[in-house]
Amino acid sequence: MMSTAPKIWTRETGLVEKRDVWSAMRRGFRGRCPRCGEGKLFRAFLKTADNCAVCGLDFTPHRADDLPAYLVIVIVGHIVVPTILWIETNYSTPVWLTFAAYLPFTFLASLGLLQPVKGAVVGLQWALRMHGFDDNPPDGIPPV
Ligand SMILES: [Zn+2]
Q: What is this structure's pTM?
């Protein structure tokens, strides 16, 4: 239902329901609903469920897009690059060992982090009431 009266923004408007950013991100990281921390956030590897089976929170308003992949590159890169530099500076490992160790590690670390990081991003967006996660949105924002 669209209200025609302009909404007046006060401090209290934003305080209707406290959403803690860190606990929401932690719950999302564990693949759980950012609001209740119980229901499953994902129905497939990177597909979020439509809503929380426990508290009913609608997950569809999230817009994680490319941010999880970007963050995973930043995180894994900051682990892999200094490690490789340190090992190569201190030990001269054979090339085959280099590739046999770094490539699978990079691949598995990226794969393993994608879902938790995406969950954390969805939790962040929910906690900050971004996109459709604001149940009391200001007027004049066109639908996506
Ligand atoms: Zn829930």
A: 0.82
